[in-house]
Every structure is written in C-alpha cells, then in structure tokens.
Amino acid sequence: MTIKVILKSIKAMEAEKIRNIFGRNVKFFRRHRKLSQSELAEKASISVTFLSNIERGKMFPKVETMSRLTLSLDIEVVELFRTDIVNDNQKEIMGKFSIDIKRTLTAALDEVIAQYMG
Fold it and tell me: What 3-state class would DSSP assign to 17?
C-alpha cells in the first residue's frame, strides 16, 4: 500500500466520522425540538430522504443547507459538530431508564412484601 492510498483512506475515515457526528447531532436536536423528519425537512427546504441520509451519516449538506438546518433548529452551526452531545443524550436516556428500573423493582418488592405480610 502506498502512502497516498493510506492518506486517502484516513481522509475517508475522518470524513465518515464527521458525517456521523453531524448526523447524530441533527437527529438529537430535531428530537429535542420535538420535530418529525418531515417537519424539519420542510422548515429547512430539503427532502425527507435527504434529511434521513444526513441523520444516518450517509450524506453531508452544503453550507447553505447546513445554515437552513441550524436556523430551523434554532442552534449555532458549531452545535452540530460537538462530540459530547450524543454522550449527554445517552446520559439522559440512562437516567430515564434508571428511574423506570427503580419503579419496576419497587413495585415488585411491594408485591412480594404484600404476599408475605398480607
């Protein structure tokens, strides 16, 4: 493998990583704003298919489209390149999941106590 091929491969991997981060952040902010894909696509004047491809990291928008997305989501462009947003989202999901687990365990324990004490 030549150096050029290796560098091209690295650039392709970096581009894919950027597309994935950008796409996940678009999806995060869209959901946070309680917008469907069709609602955001309409606001940003793009197709739902294109938005879906952006969110899945398959395509990357031009600057004009990126600007319309950020205006539609009421965020700064830099927010779409943050790498910590997905982690915050995961923490939020785990927090909700943890609450559900506690409720389920408490209900199960209450039921067991009622059977043996009642």
Answer: helix
CB 52 within 8 A of CB 113: no
Three-state DSSP state, 45: coil
Nearest to 80 by CA among 17, 7, 24: 24
User: How many helices (H) and strands (E) in the chain?
Assistant: 5, 0
- Would you say domain 1-82 falls under CATH 1.10.260.40? yes
Question: What are the angstrom distances between the C-alpha of 55 and each of 44, 63, 88, 103, 110?
Answer: 14, 16, 17, 33, 43
Reported as a single tens digit per residue, the pLDDT across 7-23 is: 666 677 788 888 998 99
The answer to whether the pTM exceeds 0.90 is: no
User: For residues 62 and 71, is the Cβ–Cβ distance under 8 A?
Assistant: no
Taking each helix axis from N to C terminus, what angle separates 85-117 and 3-32, rounded to the nearest 10 degrees? 50
Q: Which helix (H) or strand (E) holds 105?
A: helix 85-117
Parse the chain into domains and list their residue ranges. Answer: 1-82, 84-118
Question: What's the Cα-to-Cα distance from 4 to each of 8, 18, 64, rounded to whole Å?
Answer: 6, 21, 32
